[in-house]
Amino acid sequence: MIPAAFDYVAPTSVEDALAALAQHGDDAKIIAGGQSLLPVLRMRLNAPEMVIDLGRIESLRGVRDDGDAIVVGAMTPHSVVGSDPLVAQHAALVAKAVEHLADAQVRHRGTFGGALAHADPAGDLGAPALALGAEFVVAGPGGSRTVAADDFFVDLFETAIGEDEILTEVRLPKRTGWGAHYEKFVRVAHQWPIVAVAATVRVEGGVIAEARIGLTNMGSTPLRARAVEEALAGQPATEDAVRAAAEHATEGTNPPSDLNGDADYRRHLARVLTRRAILAAAS
Amino acid sequence: MTAVQDAPEVAKEIGRDRRRKEDQRLITGRTRWTDNITLPGMLHLAMVRSPFAHATITSIDTSAAKAATNVVDVVTGEDLGEAQGVLINAWPITPDQKAPTHLPVATGRVAFAGEIVAVVVARTAAEARDAAELVDVEYDVLPAALDLRESAEDTVLAHPDLGTNKSALWVFDSNEAGTGGDVEAAIAEARADGIVLEREYRQQRLIPAFMEPRSTVVDPTGEQLTVWSATQIPHILRFALAATTGIPESKLRVIAPDVGGGFGGKLQTTPEEWITVAVARRVGRPVKYTETRSESLMAAHHGRDQWQRLTLAADREGNVKALKVDLLADLGAYVSLVGGGVPVLGAFMFNAIYKFPAYRFAVQTVLTNKTWTDAYRGAGRPEATFAIERLMDELAAELGVDPLEVRERNWIKHEEFPFTTVAGLEYDSGNYEAATARAKEMFGYDELRAEQRRRRDSGDPVQLGIGVSTFTEMCGLAPSRVLGSLDYGAGGWEHASVRMLATGTVEVVTGASAHGQGHETAFSQIVADRLGVPFEDVEVLHGDTQVAHKGLDTYGSRSLVVGGEALVKATDKVVEKAKVVAAHLLEASADDLEFGGGRFTVRGTDQGMAIQEIASAVFAAHDLPDGMEPSLDSDATYDPVNFNYPHGTHLCAMEVDTETGALTMRKYVCVDDIGNVINPLIVAGQVHGGLVQGIAQALWEEAVYDESGTLVSGSFVDYLLPTAADTISFEVDHTTTPSLTNTLGTKGVGEAGTIASTPAVVNAVVDALRPLGVTDVQMPCTPERVWKAINGDGASGGPATEAAAMPHFDPAEPGADSTEGDAR
Question: What molecular functions are annotated in GO for this chain (chain B) (predicted)?
Answer without folding.
Answer: iron ion binding; oxidoreductase activity
